[in-house]
Design brief:
By secondary structure, the chain is α/β, with parallel strands linked by helices. The protein has one domain: Protein of unknown function UPF0759 (TIM Barrel, Alpha-Beta Barrel). Helices cover 35% and strands 19% of the residues. It has helices spanning 30-34, 45-48, 53-60, 75-80, 87-101, 120-129, 148-157, 197-209, 227-239, and strands spanning 3-9, 40-43, 68-72, 105-111, 136-139, 160-165, 179-184, 215-220. It has an 8-stranded parallel β-barrel. Helix 3 (53-60) runs parallel beside helix 5 and helix 8 packs across helix 9. The termini are close together.
Length: 241
Amino acid sequence: MMDWKIGCSGFAYKDWQGLFYPYDLVQADWLPYYARFFDTVELNVSFYKFPTARFLKNLYNKVPEDFSFILKAPREITHTRQFVEVNQQLEQLYAAAGEGLSDKLKGILFQLPPSYDYTEERLDMILDNMDTGFTNILEFRHRSWWNKRVIASLKQRSVTFCGVSFPGLPDDVVVSNAVAYYRFHGVPKLYYSMYEQGFLRNVADTLQKDPVVGQALLLFNNTATRAALENASFLQEYAAF
């Protein structure tokens, strides 16, 4: 039976006060409140500031046992250094993630920049840097990465290809690992657009029918309005049947 994990890309949005969070709810209690409705969240704050085990452990302690996290890798690794000479940074990231989130960690998301196009050397460099003790998820922002060699190489290393709904990129559901991942960023208006239910059902149905997939992580990044909350809630109900 498929294990579904459905939630939002981030939770600490001030614009959600009144839309989702009660006005009188202090920010320190936002995550526990969010966890009453969703069982997973993508931590995007770590993209901008390198996470510490202490910071992550604090989040770990605020949620129920069945809640899970996906940790987004810092942009220092993916954008500034672009995986060149990042052994120290990756060791620090994996150590903080393992210690801070432990059994509630579902994966680490590495989002590459739009200018970072495919080459064999880049693919090999990225994969050689992965710690196979973790579920590693790669999100590409250049369409050249949607090719057979990339998918075959990720399958061989048990690395997850992150499917995306993102303006100008293929929105195919791509499976390269037993853990599948799909990010809904908002189309046509990035971060804003609400998804039609038919599109969401198609993504879920495609994953459900794939014999390789045992766990599906579906995260909504159209968080500028209530779109992410409503789309995630709908998909939770749909996936439950």
